[in-house]
Amino acid sequence: MTGKAEKVYSEAVFELAKELGQTDEVKKELDALAEIFAAAPELGRFLSAPTITLDEKLSVLKNTFAGRISETSYSMLCVITEKGRATLVPAIAEDYRNRWYEMNNIAEVRVTTSVPLTENLRAKLKAKLETVMKKKVILTEKVDASIMGGMVINYGNTMTDGSVKAKLEALQKQIKGVIA
């Protein structure tokens, strides 16, 4: 979930990348940076620490990232480091990814099932979702045996719960309402 600051930085870097024709490249870089910062949270804390001089922080950025990522992504890292907001990299990357998906008419859909989807069912589900949503769908799957069967589909702020567990809970409430 992203907050206001993340959205401001994400929008700025997205607009610059769009202007420079680098939206795809910057998305890949921000996704990679988000993984790095998530795997090593001490990096974000170091770059945001008030006890470390800005010169030391920028030197670490230069030695680590300069020449390895685009000038757009590198500049964003420098700016958020100067502002003490380096811990926001994963959230900035998430918001950027959402903007990139919107620009490219892509929907990221999370599907939870009690058992792994077969290749055939995955293809049918993806085709159906693409038809209904009129977007290219990126399917993220999760297995959760506690739902007992069926599936739970999450897209953005929308959830469709077609799980056996949800149906049993609804039936239980209905029975309690009749008995009470």
Walk me through the structure.
The protein is α+β, with helices and mostly antiparallel strands and 180 residues long. Helices cover 62% and strands 14% of the residues. It has eight helices and four strands; from the N terminus they run H-H-H-H-H-H-E-H-E-E-E-H. The protein has helices spanning 4-20, 23-39, 41-48, 54-65, 71-82, 89-103, 119-133, 164-179; strands at residues 106-113, 136-143, 151-155, 158-161. Strands 2-1-3-4 form a four-stranded mixed beta sheet. Strand 1 (106-113), helix 7 (119-133) and strand 2 form a beta-alpha-beta unit. Helix 2 (23-39) packs across helix 3 (41-48) and helix 4 (54-65) packs antiparallel against helix 5. The longest helix is centred in the first third of the chain and has 17 residues, at 4-20. It is elongated.
Question: Could you write a compact summary of the structure shown?
Answer:
With 180 residues, the chain is an alpha+beta fold.
Features:
single chain, 180 residues, alpha+beta, Peroxidase, domain 1, Glutaredoxin, 4-stranded mixed beta sheet, 4 strands, 14% strand, elongated
Q: What number is the mean pLDDT?
A: 95
Radius of gyration: 21 Å
Outline type = elongated
Helix content: 55-70%
Strand content: 5-15%
Per DSSP E runs of 2 or more residues, the count of β-strands stands at: 4
Looking at CATH, which topology of the largest domain would you report?
Answer: Peroxidase, domain 1
Looking at the overall shape, the CATH architecture of the largest domain is Orthogonal Bundle
Biggest β-sheet description: 4 strands, mixed
